[in-house]
Design a protein that fits this description.
alpha/beta; eight-stranded mixed beta sheet; eight-stranded parallel beta sheet; Glucose Oxidase, domain 1; about 575 residues; Enzyme I, Chain A, domain 2; 3 domains
Length: about 575
């Protein structure tokens, strides 16, 4: 039996299953002493908050190369400190005279239902956070302890969903793989499994209805498949594939120290896409020196206020100093879309948030936020090589307004006697098709350009990349997309402008020769993807790449493009095997 899912962390896992289901049993009863029950609730919240701070300290102090995203648990603290959540439970206990467990569960269920109805996967993920916080409060009220996951090393965990707390304990036990029915590419399961390099699939529909405790299964997350009841011959096949995958990973790690260049010595610049300070450890592990995309919107999320200029300055300065002169491209807060920020935007009130009030549109309307962030970046620029990039640009007027605001910010910093770097470079994230058609105007105004292939593809093809019904249409082995990128590359080359690709496509090794054949030599990706890219580079020449580019642009169908690129990739990597 084969199940299909979303691959969120590559690899192959083989082993027995452990089924984990969400069980939160508690008594429901009326109360007489309201004050005593309110004290129970108050103490439970205090205890859970203490536990969360202990978890945060444990993660931040861990001396490991791959760290779990501590911001997930900081968001849980924010939920506990949310006066609306706290007062809602508090007032209902007083009004309904029901025990705290009952009321907490009631409030949490209502919030989870509300968030689960959102179209955005990121907003849906907030439901898991709220559910986890509620579960911990109820557990504390009952003087309970977390379920023990001891002895799960080498097991494959199968579950409808997993909370961040459960994921933390499972990661500590060294599980071999993870398979869940719910969750997407940006889910907590995805974030945890990628950080720890555990093979994982999400969105595997109804898997818990067919898989039982102790079943022998195989996860091939590279292909997005789960296998149940395989024959001995089939199992041996996947054991061989797993060993091959592990061998390839070893080769990748050996590639950390080799230069990123083609056989004819063309240097390729590989940078990192990151959003957390803790990800510096992963950059170091994979030998990546520059940051090609630093996502700042996560500083603004899961909090009740907007970060101040000084807070942002201190944050950016810490990163810039850590880079020791290497470059960083800081993207202005790309809020909206699937990223809601308290006091700014509630994306649940928009019919189509990805085409709505987001990115530069919010920043130009909320100049207080825009100017505060710009000031912090200008000040941090004194400490290193800093560039700033603007998201969701679609019109020339937006660029003119951006440049005017920058002039205002520089003058204000001068008047405030603050030290800053006035010569920071400015660039555009090309993700809206209209921006591509305005390139002749933008090259006169901007210093560099970066192609955000994820949004550019979905806008170009009118395909919602989060919609599973049409997910087959969201395919970047697409002639139209390649032609658009070629057009951008030619304009940048003719005007001596820096160009980088920073979407997920940048990390796809089978596409790399096409881009090099177009003259693109700068790419930004997750750090772990750079080793595979380096191995490919040392087996191809610029002439190889130009030939592939010319041939790809003669093809029309996605499938034939993918087949052609895959065949060439295997041919080039065959050269690696023969070394």
């Amino acid at each position: 039996m084969i199940f299909k899912g979303i691959s969120v962390s590559d690899g192959i896992a083989i082993g027995r299953t452990r089924i984990i289901k969400q069980n939160s049993s508690f008594e429901k009863y009326s109360i007489e002493n309201i004050d005593l029950e309110l004290d129970r609730y108050k103490n439970a919240v205090i205890n859970v908050k203490k536990e969360l701070f202990e978890t945060i300290d444990k993660i931040e102090e861990a001396d490991v190369e791959q760290k779990i995203d501590v911001n997930i648990f900081k968001a849980h603290v924010q939920i506990l400190e949310d006066p609306v959540f706290y007062k809602e439970v508090y007032n209902r206990i007083r009004l309904k005279k029901k025990n705290a467990e009952w009321i907490v569960n009631e409030v949490v269920d209502e919030l989870v239902e509300k968030f689960s109805q959102a179209e955005s996967e990121l907003i849906k993920e907030r439901a898991f956070d709220i559910k986890d916080v509620g579960r911990r409060i109820i557990l504390n009220l009952n003087n309970g302890t977390e379920e023990s996951y001891e002895g799960l090393q080498g097991f494959i965990v199968v579950a409808p969903e997993l909370t961040p707390t459960q994921l933390l304990h499972l990661a500590e036990q060294g599980v071999a793989g993870i398979c869940t029915e719910k969750g997407g590419r940006d889910s907590h399961v995805a974030i945890f499994s990628r950080a720890l390099e555990i093979p994982a699939l999400t969105g595997v529909k109804n898997v818990t209805q067919y898989v039982s405790e102790g079943d022998f299964i195989v996860i091939n997350s590279t292909e997005g498949e789960v296998f149940l009841n395989l024959t001995d011959i089939e199992i041996k096949k996947y054991i061989a594939l797993m060993e091959e995958f592990q061998k390839m990973n070893s080769q990748k790690m050996e590639a950390v120290k080799i230069p990123a260049q083609t056989t004819d010595k063309l240097k390729i610049n590989l940078s990192a896409n990151i959003q957390l300070f803790s990800e510096f450890m992963k950059m170091k592990k994979y030998g990546v020196e520059n940051i090609g995309l630093y996502r700042t919107e996560f500083m603004f999320m899961d909090r009740s206020d907007i970060p101040s200029e000084d807070e942002q300055y201190n944050h950016y300065s810490k990163i810039v100093e850590k880079l020791q002169g290497n470059s960083i491209v800081i993207r202005m807060a790309d809020i909206g879309g699937d990223k809601s920020v308290a006091g700014v935007t509630d994306i649940r009130n928009e019919n189509n948030p990805f085409l709505g009030w987001r990115g530069i549109r919010i920043l130009l309307d909320r100049r207080d936020i825009f100017k505060t962030q710009l000031k912090a970046i200008y000040r941090a620029g004194v400490n290193g090589n800093v560039k700033v990039m603007y998201p969701m640009i679609s019109l020339p007027g937006e660029v003119d307004e951006i440049l005017n605001i920058n002039e205002e910010v520089r003058n204000e910093l001068l008047n405030e006697n603050k030290t800053f770097n006035p010569d920071i470079k400015h660039g555009i994230l090309l993700e809206v098709p209209s921006a591509v058609l305005y390139m002749d105007y933008f090259v006169e105004k901007m210093d560099f350009f970066s192609i955000g292939t994820n949004d550019l593809l979905q806008f170009l093809l009118a395909v919602d990349r989060m919609n599973f019904r049409i997910s087959d249409l969201y395919c970047w082995y697409n002639k139209a997309l390649f032609l658009v990128i070629k057009h951008i590359a030619e304009i940048c080359k003719n005007n001596n402008k820096e160009l980088q690709i920073c979407g997920e496509m940048a990390a796809d090794p089978i596409c790399l020769p096409v881009f090099i054949g177009m003259g693109i030599t700068d790419f930004s990706m997750v750090p772990s993807a750079t080793t595979q890219i380096k191995l490919l580079l040392r087996n191809i020449s610029v002439d190889d790449c130009k030939e592939i580019t010319n041939n790809v642009l003669k093809l029309h169908k996605n499938l034939e493009i993918r087949r052609y690129l895959t065949e060439n990739f295997l041919k080039f990597m065959g050269r690696e095997e023969s070394k």
